[in-house]
Amino acid sequence: MAVLVLILIFVFLYFASKILIPFFTAILKLFALLSAISPFIIFMVLGAAIWEIINTLNREN
Q1: pLDDT digits (tens, 9 = 90+) for 19-54
Q2: Residue 14: pLDDT above 80?
Q3: pLDDT top residue among 8 and 16
Q4: Which helix (DSSP H) or strand (DSSP E) does residue 31 occupy?
Q5: HSE (side-chain half, CA atoms, 13 Å) at 42
Q6: What is the dihedral of CA 45, 48, 54, 57, to 10 degrees?
Q7: pLDDT, position 40
Q8: Dihedral, CA atoms, 27, 32, 35, 41, nearest 10 degrees?
Q9: Cα–Cα distance between 8 and 60 in angstroms, integer?
Q10: CA distance 1 to 5
Q11: According to the model, what pLDDT value does residue 61 have?
Q12: Global pTM?
């Protein structure tokens, strides 16, 4: 009986790893992509904010 339970657990883990490991790697790749892109997004937002501040200062003068 214990051997059957062990076999069932190993089969379950095998199929779970087949399904879950690509899922987790996809999530990790997404996080890596976001962490790679986020500095550019931050620089773009800061640049746009500075550009707007400069434009509003130029309009007032």
Answers
A1: 888 888 888 898 888 888 888 888 999 999 999 999
A2: yes
A3: 8
A4: helix 2-60
A5: 6
A6: -90
A7: 87
A8: -80
A9: 75
A10: 6
A11: 64
A12: 0.43
> Looking up tokens 């790697």, which residue turns up?
25
Residue 1 in tokens = 């009986």
For residue 49, CA distances in Å to 28, 32, 43, 59 come to 31, 26, 10, 15
Q: Compare 61 and 34 and report the one with higher pLDDT.
A: 34
Cβ burial 25-56 (10 Å sphere, 16+ → b, else e): eeeeeeeeeeeeeeeeeeeeeeeeeeeeeeee
Q: Specify the amino acid at residue 60.
A: E
